[in-house]
Structure formats: structure tokens, C-alpha cells
Sequence to fold (370 residues):
Amino acid sequence: MKKLASVGSSIHAVLGSDESEVKRTAAELAAKLTPANTGDFGLEVIDGCGDNSEQSAGRVRSAIEALQTLPFFGGKLVWLKNANCLGDTVIGRSATVQAALEDLGDALKTGLPPDVTFLLSATEVDKRRSFYKSLSKRAELQVIDRLDASRSGWEEEAMEIVRRRAKTRGLVFQEAALELFVLLTGGDTRQIENELEKIDLYAGRERNVTTEEVRTLVPLSRVGVIFELGNALAACDLQRALGLVRGLLEQGETAIGILLVAILPTVRNLLLAKDLMERHKLARPSAPFSFVAAVNRLPASATEHLPRKKDGSLNAYALGIAAMAAHRFETAQLLAGLEACLEANLQLVSTQLDHELILTEIVVKLLACR
Fold:
């Protein structure tokens, strides 16, 4: 996700935890900011990734020297690239590095020479540091963080990323294909780009992407496996759900993580969706967004208990997915499923019972009667 801070025409920064997107965006920005017709004199790149605090501090000071050196002609861009001294790390906390960053902050505060532009890119950033606070006041700042797939509402953000990148390639996703692509890639921008390139090559002249093509070409990510478990539960596919639980445990996922990220949210959303549909006579949707529209038309008193995104808006997309499957369950069955989740949570944190057995029991309790 990108956020634009206050603008300084000669100072730019691209920061954030999404490494692949930070590098791509910084490279594009560097190409745009480098003065035309200046050849090798128009861009000075300083590798900001030092092996230790002394080396990292030296790279920062090299950037300061470059900023204070007037260009030969036509201006220049100084790019401190992939700096690894801004995070809350051993290198970032060292007094040597902090002193160098303070000097860099003073240089930016004083102002750059005419025709000199500065670009900083980094993936590990401690936003509590004075350098970051000073930079955010003076730079045109882009913060690009990875999507958090455990946070509600991530699917809609991921869909916008996929739509935007697909459009640049001339690809058009069917709605169901887009939803599946997002779940399989889990919001990982590196994987999104890799899989779009694969689909681009496969598609040839036919630019409409179908669900079948996505299933054929896109492998499951870790997050995708977790959401496949939720889908299997919603579809009442007992054998597939048990197989996915076993597979996740074998891959090193914790049982408590599987419970809280996949099983519990699925049961909760199914119950919330079913309650809304029964209480307000909402029809079973054919697509998630049609249910979103129906929920948004309800009075505030009818939706005040529903999960929210960070901005306070309803996280209705996950409910839309659940609403498509809620007809397979009885309300009492889902209430019992929530109670089973609570019991499983207590067992996982307070007993020595086998974790696979605990998760198997909760899945069977939820689905076996179907």
C-alpha cells in the first residue's frame, strides 16, 4: 500500500516492507528523476546495503558527499539504494550509523544544491527514529508495505493490485478468476508479478483470463493453502479439509495459527452471513460483491456488530464469500462450531494432546453430520 507524504521537489524516498515492490518502484522513479542527456554523469548510485555498522555509516556519508558535489552539467540524481541501516536492527541501532543519519538529515534540512536530486530506498524502516520523522516532512515519500493476509479486508486491496498490473499487460480477469488468483497468491506482490507474467505468456492473443487457466497455471502459496482450507470447510468437503490440515502441520504451521487464521474466521463468517440472510431476508448471492452491496444497504444498527477494516468500513467481502456457502449449514451447527473452536483453543494452549487430533476433531464436529 502506498501513502504519499509532504512533497519536497528534490528529495524522494521509497520505503516499506514489500521488498519487490519497493525495488521496482524505486527503479522506475530513478529512471524518471535522472536528468535527460547527462549520460553516466546524471545518476550516482550508492549501494546502501552494508555488511556492518561501519560500512553502512560509510555508505551514508558517501551519499552526503555526493549530494554536496555539484553536477558537471545538466543536474544529477543521487540514489542511496537498498539502505539497510534504517531498521530496528543491530546495524540500525549503532551509534556510528545514527550519527551518519543525523548528518544526512541535517544536509537535507539545509537544502540540496541546485539541480541535485536525492532518492532513498529501503525495506527495513524504524518509523520511531528521528531521521524517518525528519525525512517524512521533507521528502516525497512512498511507503509500500506488504499486505497482511491475516488482517481483514486484504483481499480487496490485493484485487486492486492485480487489476492494475493485469491492465498494464492487457489482461482482463473474469471476476471469479480474479478472486481465485488473489487467494492463490495471498497478496504477495512478488508472486503476483511472477504469476501474471506466466499467464501473459500463456494467454497469447486471447487476453481474457478464466478460472480454469488460473487453476492450471497458479500454484498455491502458503496463504493460499490456508484459504483453501477455509473454502473446503465452507464447501463441507471433509476429506479435503482434513488433508489440508495435515499438510499445513507438515509444512510447519502451528495448530493455533491454523485454528485462528483459517478455521475460526470461516465458522464466524458463515454464522454472521447466515444470521444476516435470515434476519434481513437477504438472498444467497452468486458473487461476493453482490452480497456486499446488499449489506451496505442495511441500516447501521443491523451491521454494527460486523468486522471492520482499519478505516472503519465494513469488511463485507469475506462475508460475501461465506454467504455463498451458508445455506449448507444450520445456525445451531455453526454455533456448536464456534464452541468447538473455543474448546480447541483451550486444549492447544493448556494440554499436551496431539495437535492434529485436536484440529481433526473440530473439523469432524463441524462437517461430519453433513
